[in-house]
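We modelled the chain as a single entity of 210 amino acids. Its sequence is:
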Amino acid sequence: MSAPVIAVDGPAAAGKGTLARRLAAHLGLPYLDTGLLYRATGRRVLDAGADPRDPGVAEEAARTLRPTDLERPDLRGPEADAAASAVATQPGVRAALLQWQRDFGRTHGAVLDGRDIGTVVFPDAPIKLFITASPEERARRRHLELTARGNTADPAQVLAELRARDEQDAARAVAPMKPADDAVLIDTTTLDADAAFARAVEVVRGKIET
């Protein structure tokens, strides 16, 4: 088969980004963290002193997004998380960023990770993975990530913010986060990065050889 598009979806801190990057390197495919598009859009809105929930401002930020915006060092953390989730609920923002993602994947195949790759961006992708883990385990990982960066974070608050984002992402009217009907579910709650990667490679190999 020609170079495939591999859709890797799932909630925050489930390990999908680490897995998708490693999978792309293993297969020699380009990689795109589509969440960065929304994070960068949200950050541009914040830079303008505006509200990420403002549809007009958010859509303009998405339409004028530059590749260099994805390289900013301030696209992680609670503020960026909240802004990304807010702009991602807006149809105009999602429409503006949809073509970017499709052009990237269709050029030479790719591994893309996000929340609606397998359901909206590439519903015909031959390989779809949905990476998940328990909220408590994801909150533990996110807390470790934040403290490793020198950010003070209360574990209970991290869990509350993660649950709130899960709810918002799953309940939004446009492109809600959910597994595609034909996605393979990988629960990483009790898996380390190597075990999760091995499982993903097993799934991909089975799909390619079929």
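As a brief sanity check on the tokenised model: Residues 91-108 form the longest helix (18 residues). The chain has one domain: 5-209.
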